[in-house]
Amino acid sequence: MGNLGFKAVKIAADAVLYLLAALFIFPLYWMTTGAFKDQTSSVAFPPELIPSAPTLVNFRKLVGDGMIFHWLYNSIFTSVIATAGVCLVASMAGYALTKRKFWGANHSFTLIVVVMFIPRQITLVPLFTMMRDLNLVGTLASVILPVICLPFGVFLMKQFSQSVPTELLEAGKIDGCSELGLFFRIFLPVIKPAIGALAIFAFTYTWNDFLWQLVMLSDHAKMTINVGIATMVTEYVANYGLQMAAATLGFLPVFVMFIGFQRYFVKGITMGSLKG
Questions:
Q1: Which end of the chain is more exposed for a tag (fewer CB within 10 A), N or C?
Q2: Is residue 16 part of a domain?
Q3: Residue 267 has what pLDDT?
Q4: How far apart are the first and last CA of the chain?
Q5: Per-residue exposure over 152-166, b if at least 16 CB sit within 10 Å of its own CB, e if not
Q6: Which pLDDT tens digit goes with each residue over 95-107?
Q7: How many domains, the chain?
Q8: Which of 33, 35, 37, 40 has its CA nearest to residue 53?
Q9: Nearest to 58 by CA among 75, 41, 71, 82
Q10: Residue 106 belongs to a domain
């Protein structure tokens, strides 16, 4: 009886998980199928779950216009540079906060945690003022720089860095390794899975940072994919199929990024549960 009850609970739990998975995947399915619908099919009622007359007209319009490639390039460029910067800065901060004892280390980390709770909307005006004073408004640098010092990245890498044995670094120092050598040749290879997990988060965070990019970028040629898609909606016209096609193309780099770093992400989550 006990085994039957356990199996019944397991089947029910699996059914709930599959249902939740289907609910989460459905928006992606709707976006992808919507890319192959014309305007009439997009606004049809009842909605067409499966396109009755699939068409490539939306993709032809995007390719013919050519602006989609500028938007994709800008999004990929800003996300890659910001991700590299976040991983480097956060790794160095995690190394310093856990492996180098200095006055104020605990207070500094507490301040970083507090900053994580500040709503992004509150920082828009101060950040805009800084970018204006630096003459960076309207440039891709204004999108990249605020992301590099991401507080969550420092918090994440600090937690991961605690799992690195201090004895390993001390052995490297005895062998004559410099401070930079300890960081790049010993510390970084050990926390590679953690960097992979942070890279996924930083890339998707930068890619989806619509509000800040909307504030900073006004030149049509310098817009990212998210801001560019928003410009497709006018006061009187909204071509949903064209927007879905652009969103589908914009989803592909993020999907490739996740697939490429997935194994590091899983290892990073496991690694974060260990304490050195």
A1: N
A2: no
A3: 60
A4: 44
A5: bbbbbbbbbbbbbee
A6: 888 887 778 778 8
A7: 1
A8: 37
A9: 41
A10: yes
What is the rounded average pLDDT of the residues 259-275? Answer: 60
pLDDT value at residue 274? 46
Instruction: From 212, 71, 231, select the one nearest 142 (Cα to Cα).
Output: 212
Residue among 48, 18, 24 at smallest CA distance from 35? 48
**What are the residue ranges of helices labelled H in 117-150?**
124-133, 141-148
CATH number for the domain that contains residue 127: 1.10.3720.10
Least confident range of 53-57, 134-138, 226-230, 237-241:
237-241
Mean of pLDDT values over 188-198: 83
Altogether, the residues listed in the chain come to a count of: 276
- Has residue 2 been placed in a domain? no
Q: What pTM did the predictor assign? A: 0.80
| For the chain, counts of helices (H) and of strands (E) | 15, 0
φ, ψ of residue 182 in degrees (nearest 5): -60, -40
Let me know if residue 46 belongs to a domain: no
Q: What is d(CA 271, CA 265) in angstroms, rounded to the nearest whole number?
A: 10
Question: What contacts 164, CB < 8 A, 6 or more positions away?
Answer: 98, 99, 187, 190, 191, 276
pLDDT surpassing 80 at residue 132:
yes
Burial class (CB in 10 A: 0-12, 13-18, 19+), 33: middle
Angle at which helices 192-207 and 151-161 cross, to 10°: 170
CA diameter of the chain? 73
